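Deliverable D4.2, example record:
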Amino acid sequence: MLEQIPIFTRLPKEHLLQLKTVSRKIFAEKGSILFSPGDATEGFYAVLDGAVRVFRVSPKGKEVSLEIVGSGSIFAGASLFSDTYHCYAEALKESTVYLIRKDRFLEMIQTDPRFAAEWVRVLSLEVMHLRQRLDELTLKSPKARIASYILLLCEMKNTDSATLPAHRKSIATLLGMTHETFYRTAKELECESIVLFDGHNVKIVNRSMLEELME
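Output generated by the structure prediction step:
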């Protein structure tokens, strides 16, 4: 099943087979906590199906969403080089995730230079992707942020439709806007016949116009 995770599909088959031997499948119920601050790190995670919210709690008790991880994405990658986790990870719905065991994964990197080189290449691509997302969150309008997020979801599935990994309120927080702004902007995109929302599903109606919003 790991071959369904985009970041792993970039690895050669022999390395993917190795990766399966250091992974453990976990079924997480909605609302369950995969890890909390201070927990000893076991490794990083890949979401096969479902959605996970990564968040911190401020000194005043406010939850701050750091990431909403949908099917096909990984999270807690930095845990490989930390003794403990520094945030929470909560399943937003029933989810199937893989735990990539820290010690055995690091052993693969240390003993197989070819695998280490491949993994560095894969992570470099991920860093470029994350930088692009950061620019979109800080520099662009709400409409451009939503357009970028929809395109990202569909790109992961290689289709023109996708399922939102969480409620719109959570996604709005992730994109740096209020729920009201997200709802109003989403309606504008629908009225302009650019996208179509149907519950938790979204479909790209006019891809060229959606991509223009990002420029």
